[in-house]
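Intended use. Records such as the DNA repair protein entry shown here are meant for training and evaluating sequence-to-structure methods. They are not intended to support clinical decisions.
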Amino acid sequence: MKPIRPLIVLCAAALVPLGASGQSMEERLRAQLRTTVQQLRDLQEAQAQWQNEKTAVEAARDKAISERDAAKAELARARASQTSERALAQERASHARDRAELEKARTSSAQLVAERRTQGTELAGVQARLDAASGQLQRCEAKNAQLYRVGHELLDAYEHVDLGTFLQTRQPFAQRARVKYDEIAQQYGDALYAGRFDRRMTTTAAPASAPRPASAPEVGP
């Protein structure tokens, strides 16, 4: 609004009639000089005001630019921080998954070790029972062979006793009695052979019971 004032003053000075009565040329010049000086002062004041306003505007502009740059820097830091936090969260999640997998692997390994120990214990027990059964089997075979040998020795001794020797120790009897004893000896031999233990036959069915030997004929005194 102030820049309009000097123009108004100049227009007013131009409208003053040159031939106004009671004024000399000197007075008019002085009046015009005063007016011109006042206009110059007004222009100087307006210029100073404009300069002040320009300075304030430039300061506001610089402040706005500084605030804008600070906001950009803060935004960049916030984005960088957000990116770092997201990367950190992802890394933590990855570490958590790795720890879970490691714990799972440790648990599985412990279970396998426990199972192997249990199997080893069971295997040792089975081996011990197998060794015991094998020893018992060997003893049975030895006893069986001894029994079989003794039985055959008894039968052989019986078969080689002649009738005269038998008659010397016993009351005389008929020839049919000797035949009967021969049959009894054969039945005992069959029974001994049928009862003989053979571990190769453990998977087959048990043999039928051997027939009971016939009773020897009674010999009277």
